[in-house]
Design brief:
With 382 residues, this protein is of the alpha/beta class. The protein has two domains: 8-204 and 326-375, Rossmann fold (3-Layer(aba) Sandwich); 232-312, formyl-coa transferase, domain 3 (2-Layer Sandwich). The protein has helices at 17-27, 55-60, 74-84, 98-102, 106-112, 137-144, 164-187, 197-203, 206-215, 249-258, 273-278, 280-291, 296-305, 316-321, 323-328, 369-375; strands spanning 8-11, 31-36, 49-50, 53-54, 64-68, 89-92, 117-122, 191-196, 232-236, 241-245, 310-312, 332-336, 340-344. The strands form four sheets. Strands 5-2-1-6-7-8 form a six-stranded parallel sheet, with helices on both faces. Strands 9-10-11 form a three-stranded antiparallel sheet, with helices on one face. A two-stranded antiparallel sheet has the order 3-4. β3 (49-50) and β4 (53-54) form a beta hairpin. The longest helix is centred in the middle third of the chain and has 24 residues, at 164-187. The two termini are 33 Å apart.
Length: 382
């Protein structure tokens, strides 16, 4: 039995943050009723495509049931409200105020269903001066402080390669929903949850918080090295780079001996993590005098043999296709009506040795209407 078996979720969300949240819940056994407009979730129309199916939609809507409703139609709105009265959770990511205008706001739905956990995901939250600003992942990355601290030394601010603000907001939304369900078990009352992409991403920048809130400093862009610890970054090899993560004095002494510079461990410039960071260029030169004579594979093997954390820099194909990823089940094929078996990356946590993942891939647009109406006893209203 999966942890969320028996939990019913009405998913009013689209694109990424909300669907990612509900996909995680689906993996853990929740029943997700995805309400879509007649044209479908926007992600159904964004590539890349395989056999006409959107990869992004397929990956982020696994294990859900699809119901098409036009919320501007009073009859369809009544159906949505009737379902909301019988579920445990509602997730929406409309612009703040839109759900209320539609008649699907937290106050109205919780009045009809006091045990309801109602989760709103938005760019900047339901209150505050930025509430009504249009928000995409790039906007939030730019305003959160993440981009300002990311990039090559002396270079321009950079975004991450993934829509990290959307994904983190979806992750925090799923976390808060499960916490609210635990609270409901104790109190009998649901909750209204306000998840902002801005708040969620800002909360993750712990190194930046340490520098700004405690040291009174602004994070500087330092490329592929750690802003506070050294050596903790990427170093040149004959055929690429090797990532090395050394934090303690003991590990630095081991590294110094390995690279043929044992005297470095006793050098006052390198005595502490902080002093090594102050003299980072000198530390890097010492390491690269050794690493640049080796291939990445040889450098990683030597470092690992000395018990030092090190790694090659893999692309996604290498990350997904190695023996460890296979053993951990990082990619799971799920049945799909069009694709046959669709590769899926489910939630990553193992429960008692097992990794719960949805049983099926993404749904056809509106393909579950009859089953959903029958389940909730709404055929007559429909």
């Amino acid at each position: 039995m999966k942890p969320l078996s028996g939990i019913k979720v009405l998913d009013l969300s689209r694109v990424l943050a909300g669907p990612y949240c509900t996909a995680l819940l689906a993996d853990l056994g929740a029943e997700i009723i995805k309400l879509e407009p007649p044209q479908g979730d926007d992600y159904r129309h964004i590539g890349p495509f395989k056999d006409g199916e959107s990869a992004l939609f397929t990956l982020n809507n696994r294990g859900k049931k699809s119901l098409v409703l036009d919320l501007k139609n009073p009859a369809d709105l009544e159906l949505a409200q009737a379902i909301a009265a019988k579920v445990d959770v509602v997730v929406e990511n409309f612009r703040p105020g839109v759900a209320e205008r539609l008649g699907l706001g937290a106050e109205a739905l919780r009045a009809a269903n006091p045990r309801l956990v109602y989760c709103s995901i938005s760019g900047f939250g339901q209150q505050g001066p930025f509430r009504d600003l249009p928000a995409y992942d790039l906007v939030v990355q730019a305003m959160s402080g993440l981009m300002a601290g990311t990039g090559e030394e002396g270079g321009q601010p950079l975004k991450t390669g993934e829509s990290i603000a959307d994904l983190i907001a979806g992750l925090f939304a799923s976390w808060s929903i499960m916490a609210a369900l635990v609270g409901r078990n104790a109190s009998g009352q649901g909750a209204t949850l306000d998840v902002a992409m801005y708040d969620a991403l800002f909360s993750m920048l712990t190194t930046s918080h340490a520098l700004h809130l405690y040291a009174g400093l602004l994070p500087q862009r330092v490329g592929n090295r750690h802003p506070l610890s050294t050596p903790f970054g990427c170093f040149a090899t004959q055929d690429g780079q090797v990532a090395i993560a050394v934090l303690s004095g003991k590990h630095f002494a081991t590294l110094a001996a390995l690279i043929g510079a044992p005297e470095a461990a006793g050098d006052p410039r390198f005595a502490t993590d902080e002093s090594r960071t102050t003299h980072e260029p000198e530390v890097k030169a010492l390491i690269e005098a050794w690493s640049s004579q080796l291939t990445t594979e040889e450098a990683v093997a030597a470092l690992a043999g000395a018990g030092l954390p090190a790694a090659p820099i893999w692309d996604i194909a290498e990350a997904a296709g190695n023996a460890h990823a296979t053993a951990r089940g990082l990619v799971t094929p799920l049945p799909h009506a069009v694709l046959g078996m669709a590769p899926t990356v489910g939630q990553p946590v193992r429960f008692d040795g097992e990794k719960p993942v949805s049983a099926v891939s993404s749904p056809a647009l509106g393909g579950d209407r009859a089953a959903i109406l029958r389940e909730f006893g709404l055929e007559e209203i429909a």
